[in-house]
Amino acid sequence: MQGSQASPIIVALDFPSDQPALALAGQLNPEKCRLKVGKELFTSSGPALVRKLQQRGFEVFLDLKFHDIPNTAAGAVAAAADLGVWMVNVHASGGEKMMTACRERLERFGTDKPLLIAVTVLTSMTEHDLSGIGISVSAEEHVSRLATLTKNCGLDGVVCSAQEAPKLKVEQGTAFQLITPGIRPASADKGDQQRIMTPAAALKAGSDYLVIGRPITQAADPLAALEAIYAEVVGL
Ligand SMILES: O=c1ccn([C@@H]2O[C@H](COP(=O)(O)O)[C@@H](O)[C@H]2O)c(=O)[nH]1
Description:
Blueprint: E1 9-12, H1 18-27, E2 34-37, H2 39-55, E3 60-66, H3 70-82, E4 87-91, H4 95-106, E5 115-119, H5 127-132, H6 139-152, E6 157-159, H7 165-172, E7 177-180, H8 199-205, E8 209-212, H9 214-217, H10 222-233
Parallel strand pairs: 1-2, 1-8, 2-3, 3-4, 4-5, 5-6, 6-7, 7-8
The chain binds the ligand O=c1ccn([C@@H]2O[C@H](COP(=O)(O)O)[C@@H](O)[C@H]2O)c(=O)[nH]1.
């Protein structure tokens, strides 16, 4: 495979403005990673920043985790498709009607439609956090339930922890894409992430894509950090 098609790495550009994001993108190789634009950067810098990253050769995952009434969420994913992003997401807890509306709205984009995935249980959450919002099953069990709902709505995959990947690959099949944040090289700080795994272990567990932010973006040498992770995972 050529280009970023060969790399499972998605670098999370969590920055407050476009200057540091573009400066970092300028150091990274689009053949070795895709980029993720999330709520902080999109709120400050918007579609113009996404277009600049695309012009530099990067495929963009627009991580805005839409969660709204079906018509509003469907309009939002269609706007993301107009922007030409590679992947866009919603919250699975938005439910069947919302996810189905989003999938159906993207049909008009034909082969140009982005991958549509759904967030299950945030990787920063523990079972204690779930219990605080009234969910009394394990994180793994709740992720499984939401993944089943997501697949039944015809979406392409889910955001989950790599810890849940082995179970999901058995339950949902190998074509159902698993996008896993909470990736931490052995030496990296955990920060606010809870359900974590190293890059190599995550791929072996069944992750299709590894979302990695601070271990690369906050490294003294981000390019070296990306190269080290790339060397760890490519060829596994
Ligand atoms: O469950 C989720 C869903 C999304 N994220 C996002 O991924 C990155 C992770 O960044 P790190 O710096 O590597 O922790 C970040 O943009 C989150 O918004 C997630 O972590 N967990």
